[in-house]
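Reopening: structure tokens for the nicotinamide-adenine-dinucleotide complex, inputs below.
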Amino acid sequence: MGEKHSDLVNKSKAAFLKWRALPAPERGNYIRLFGEALREQKKEVANQITSEAKKIISESEGEVQEVIDMCDFATGLSRQLYGLTMPSERPNHRLQEIWQPLGIVGCITAFNFPVAVFGWNFCLAAVCGNSIIWKPSPHSEGCAELTKKIWDSVAGEYKDLVLIKKGANDASVELAEDENIALLSATGSCAMGKAIAPLVSARLGRNLLELGGNNAAIICPTADLDLTIKGVTFSAAGTTGQRCTTLRRLFVHEDIYEEVIKKLIPSFESLKIGDPFDRNIQVGPLISEQSYEAMKKTLDDCSNKAKKIHGGQKLDIEGGIYVQPAIVEVDSHIDEMNDETFAPILFVMPFKKLTDAIKLQNSVKQGLSSSIFTNDFRESELFLGPEGSDCGIANVNIGTSGAEIGGAFGGEKDTGGGRESGSDAWKAYMRRITATLNHGIELPLAQGVEFDSES
Ligand code: NAD
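Re-run output (same inputs, fresh job):
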């Protein structure tokens, strides 16, 4: 197996101590170089992603592009790690926030975004002055090795800023229990988060959790159905249903239910399924036999409760585990809709009132992504308002998957509450100092408190 845990940590700590002393814009410059190297090797990295995570090549290229975008974002951010200056209530005082790096960031990643999730974490962690120890999914260690090689090609004396810790669950546990890991960022299933988070909390450490989703979309009567069907099909069947943001539950207004079903079924049936390296293919294989077993179990379990099941069968295609994405029509929110089955199963259910659909959407434990398809702005405003979606991502006239890096990514409730990628997500990778500076000759106390022996 890999290097001893304590050796990795010592190397990472030494890298951190050197790296944090570099001015942030210089750190940004290294990340810019990393982005340029990725641009040059985009094809190679995408091929590795498709080999291991088995997503179609266009999505793998998109995944590398996401890391390149993160590099550009972090390069700009390297001159914008702003702290606020607040007016002090005391004369001749300045009150300000100063942001400092944390130390070593541990980064556990899932199989399905083997490079992008590292990119979200690394670009922010590094620009903020931290080092990173990356524990990739056992399914995608080759992606981690290749990414590390590309970092090494531009990193000069800072190669150890990125270190890889290979292994199964016990490798994550070692990171979670180690006090040297200042922040543990963990991406994966809710079950993984529930196993890891208590270990970090027990040592009062910080974690950043990006866990499972159980995402829903609502289709209202005014929706543009051509656009909607495209959005639903990509979100539900794209990446073979193996995105955290995959659409799993669809609520359709009863007035358009039959019309939607009539369009959705042929859209699913016409999906091109096969070799993910073939550019005409839209849906590649599942990651493992175990994933297929999970899909089959969910479909079997709901077979007596569903109105109708379309698709879901294993396909006779060589070189992987291929399935026909399933549509399961139901009259009510059945138990099988409460869990995330990491495979292409879309439950579809009619609704009468939008408020009921929103309630059902929010009724599950996870809170990652959600969508509404409507041309009625009152409906979309309701969906985005305080009585609307309880998810970290809420889209209008777009499916639940395919986020851009500019916004903060993450979800609520069992999804873990973490935010990564754009906006001000960088703040999770730093510690905040509140500093009050006195440049006067008096020592006035805050809130008018008197502590003067002469008075
Ligand atoms: P997984 O939970 O099986 O594994 C994720 C990582 O955690 C791997 O590195 C694995 O080795 C480790 N791990 C798993 N169980 C563990 C345990 N009990 N103790 C310690 N370490 C453990 O997930 P996966 O199958 O690789 O990926 C799919 C899951 O990840 C889905 O639930 C998906 O929704 C989620 N995901 C979430 C996001 C997000 O940003 N919210 C992104 C991608 C994937």
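Residues 57-77 form the longest helix (21 residues). The chain has a mean pLDDT of 97. Marking as resolved unless the reporter disagrees.
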